[in-house]
Amino acid sequence: MLRGFYTAASGMYAQQRKTDMLTNNMANINTPGFKEDQAAIRAFPEMLLQRIEASSTQTGKVKQIGSLNTGVYMQETLPRFIQGDLQESNLQTDLALSDTDGRPVFFTVDDNGQSKYTRNGRFTLDGDGLLTTAAGLPVLDVNGNQIRLNSDQFTVRNNGMIEENGVQIAQLGIAVAENADSLIKEGDGLFRTENNTPLPNAGQAFAVAQGFIEGSTVDASRSMTEMLTAFRAFEANQKILQAYDKSMEKAVNEIGRVNG
Predict the structure, then answer these.
(1) Of 106, 136, 111, which is closest to residue 121 (Cα–Cα)?
(2) Where are the domains of the chain?
(3) pTM for the complete prediction?
């Protein structure tokens, strides 16, 4: 009986975590470059139940009852690295990346001396003329240096080369992830490697579009459908838990009563 409590509770907890993930996806449906998360739900290992029987002819006879599943859990969430739609903004400081060979590429930014990576190309110029993210993190060039410009009237070529008044200022530091699932997702649309090891240069495996931003990859209709499914699964486990609770109440208050 108690195993049923734990199995139903684990199902509720897994669906609650999935709902939280889907809610976060929906909240970022208009965030440039956002990669929606996907849940990986796994079952706990099954248990093989046995019963030891005692009889007049044989003592300690083992009889197999069968296997028992002990519930599920949400193992991890993984970003879905697919190309988002490019949306025109007509802002010179807005940049969008396109993956040209299937491998995801990223802008490189400086976060307190550590290289982080983002697909959100909604950039701006700070008071010192540095090209920064919306969160104020400096964007890095191919040599790992911060990019300083005189005004927002600059041009970015497809290969990431930045020109100002016809003069080449810097080239964007575009990195490529050979195994994107190994990246660790942080806030503000940032990613980092597990050991803060810099990602390799993307070479020619990208294209930059100026005056565009990459849209979020969240599918609103599919996310709503998955959220309703998660709600129903949560409610089903909740009803099972309530049924177990009533059974335990009956066992304690009625079956286990000793008449004096």
Answers:
(1) 106
(2) 1-80, 86-214
(3) 0.79
